[in-house]
Design a protein that fits this description.
Elements lengths: L4 H10 L7 E5 L8 E8 L6 H15 L12 E6 L50 H11 L5 E6 L6 E3 L2 E4 L5 H14 L41 E3 L2 E6 L17 H14 L3 E5 L5 E3 L4 E7 L7 E7 L2 E2 L6 E4 L7 E11 L9 H4 L1 E10 L5 H7 L2 E3 L6 E8 L3 E8 L5 E10 L2 E8 L8 E9 L2 E9 L2
Parallel strand pairs: 2-3, 2-4, 4-6, 10-16
Antiparallel strand pairs: 1-3, 5-6, 7-8, 9-11, 11-14, 12-13, 12-15, 15-16, 17-18, 18-21, 19-20, 19-22, 22-23
The structure holds zinc ion (2 copies).
């Protein structure tokens, strides 16, 4: 969703980027309104790309059968980039002190694309791409909108890693490994086994605080299995579970409550559950007729969202995603309608959950009797073609000298002035705007007109 494109450009200059086929595994919505998970192949030849997709689907199905990914699956898109390696497999130098011996796991040095290899940091099972610059170049050239990247290494030997990237092999436990590594990469979780003093640091599920009243998961103390437990390797570092009851300690159990909460909070920092709403702008509406308001919500499964509506700051009875104001039901003048959405999921007890993750839409309305200046303007207003590719023609009539400003507003509220406020004489106006230069992605935008201080909004759709 949120990209640091500059960073990619820097990396891009350092490595040759190739364009590969990108398969859609799951698409629930537009890229800018979802968390985009992207799998990369390494050690798969051109002939093995169908196997790569099968391996991805196996891992991904298991991921979305894992709490809380199951609940929030509609918040995610999933893609797979079919990166082609010259040779099949993952490199193994057999140089780590804990290598099982070449009789069990032979030395190998295939020409795979990212140089993914075992024995990283002198730990046999740590599998990491050798060239992060190449990974970044492939992402920049093929899928710059990614939020989280997973590299699947084509070998059935056991291994994986979690850093900026999550990595697994195709071992029979590959899905479990990848989901554990996504805990590191996507949610910044620590291992709940003792991984060594070099990994000991404050994390959502690791702390030096031993007081159950002060520990960061204090709201979960007393829930089954949750406490403050010293790590096996250090009396100074603590974790919320013990005895292999969290996926961050061993493969196969669920994530513990603390880890689940961390995922939910992370998901909410990336995606708003208010997917879209109509009328689509928060500027002034002129309602002399009955008007309907609607939000489209991204609902967790089961739905834990709670919606309230406030007319002029007074809470209304409606709790569903539509609200209607009947013509004549409120007095002339200015009014506001606000809807508020919160996620009351039992998976999060974070103290700041509601303060951070309360979502609002505010509509300002001005209600008038008779035909207003704005309505006259609206009647003569034409925007075409709609949808548009590059150029947009805007035509309107002014029945008297008026002050006019025209803005283009993006889905996330960015305002691009097309016409700075200026006085125009009465008459007909027609202008062609070349919108190419703004680098707009495909999607819905709003053209906002401000005529003599009153606002009118129209939706336009940009094609690819
Ligand atoms: Zn090894
Ligand atoms: Zn945990």
């Amino acid at each position: 969703m949120k990209k640091l494109l500059l960073l990619f450009i820097l990396f891009y200059s350092g490595a040759k980027a190739q364009v590969f086929t990108v398969d859609t595994i799951i698409k629930t919505g537009p890229l800018n309104k979802r968390i985009n998970f992207v799998y990369l192949a390494d050690g798969y030849t051109a002939a093995e790309q169908a196997k790569f997709i099968t391996d991805v689907i196996n891992i991904n199905n298991k991921l979305f059968n894992t709490i809380p990914f199951t609940e929030y699956k509609d918040y995610f898109n999933v893609f797979a980039i079919k990166v082609i390696s010259n040779e099949s497999g993952i490199k193994h130098a057999s140089t780590a002190p804990d290598c099982p011996g070449v009789g069990t796991h032979p030395v190998s040095n295939p020409k795979n694309y990212f140089g993914t290899k075992f024995d990283v940091a002198n730990i046999h099972r740590l599998v990491v791409p050798d060239s992060f610059a190449k990974v970044n170049a492939v992402l920049a050239a093929n899928f710059p909108e990614y939020d989280q990247v997973m590299v699947v290494g084509n070998t059935s030997f056991y291994g994986g890693s979690g850093g900026a990237l999550a990595t697994s092999t195709t071992h029979t436990s590959a899905a479990e490994i990848m989901i554990h590594e996504i805990g590191h990469s996507f949610a910044s979780l620590a291992d709940e086994y003792w991984a060594g003093i070099q990994y000991a640091t404050e994390k959502p599920n690791m702390t030096a605080q031993s007081d159950p009243l002060l520990v960061k998961w204090k709201n979960w103390i007393g829930s089954p299995g949750i406490g403050v437990f010293a790590h096996s390797g250090s009396p100074l570092w603590f974790k919320p579970t013990t005895g292999g009851t969290c996926k961050m300690e061993v493969l196969n159990p669920a994530f513990c409550r603390v880890c689940k909460e961390t995922f939910v909070e992370r998901i909410h920092t990336l995606v708003s559950p208010i997917d879209s709403y109509i009328p689509s702008n928060a500027a002034t509406l002129n309602i002399s007729n009955t008007i309907g308001f609607k939000t489209n919500l991204l609902k967790p499964i089961p739905n834990t969202l709670n919606q309230t509506w406030f007319l002029d700051n007074v809470q209304q009875a409606a709790t569903i995603d539509t609200f209607t104001i009947l013509s004549g039901s409120i007095a002339n003048g200015n009014h506001t309608l606000r809807t508020t959405v919160v996620d009351n999921t039992s998976l999060s007890r974070a103290d700041n959950h509601l303060s951070l993750h309360t979502y609002n839409v505010l509509w300002n309305m001005s209600i008038a009797t008779g035909v207003t200046e704005v309505q006259v303007f609206n009647a003569g207003l034409k925007l075409f073609p709609n949808p548009f590719a590059e150029n947009l023609v805007i035509q309107y009539k002014l029945s008297k000298p008026s002050s006019v400003a025209i803005n283009l507003v993006t889905a996330n509220g960015k305002n691009i002035p097309l016409v700075q406020e200026k006085k125009q004489m009465q008459g007909s106006y027609s202008s062609t705007f070349s919108l190419n230069r703004y680098g707009l992605s495909a999607g819905v935008y709003t053209i906002v007109f401000i005529v003599n201080g009153q606002t009118i909004a129209r939706e336009i759709i940009k094609l690819k």
